[in-house]
Amino acid sequence: MKSAGNTKNGTGRKRQILAGIAVLLAVGVGFLLSKWKEASDHGGQLSRAPFRIAGNLYYVGTRDVTSFLLTGPAGHVLIDGGYPGTAP
Q1: 53-82: burial string, b at 16+ Cβ within 10 Å, e else
Q2: 0.70 surpassed by pTM
Q3: Do the beta carbons of residue 71 and residue 58 sit within 8 Å?
Q4: Which of 14, 22, 61, 85 could form a disulfide with 66 if both were Cys (CB 3.0 to 4.6 A apart)?
């Protein structure tokens, strides 16, 4: 037979677990919303540092859109300029 005290403690423990899960979910949702807002503030494009691939070919895109810059003495060629938010 279970006593009233054991049932009450079991219910209290379940509430603590549910409260902990709720806090973790709230923190996770807050984190994801902040990342979403950061991405949307940049037109959906997060910056990435340009780097040289080989010779006169450079990666100049964002994290989501690949753009290449081909340099030469006669001028430069940008391959796939991306979206309007990519330019900065």
Answers
A1: eeeeebebbbeeeebebeeeeeeeeeeeeb
A2: no
A3: yes
A4: 61
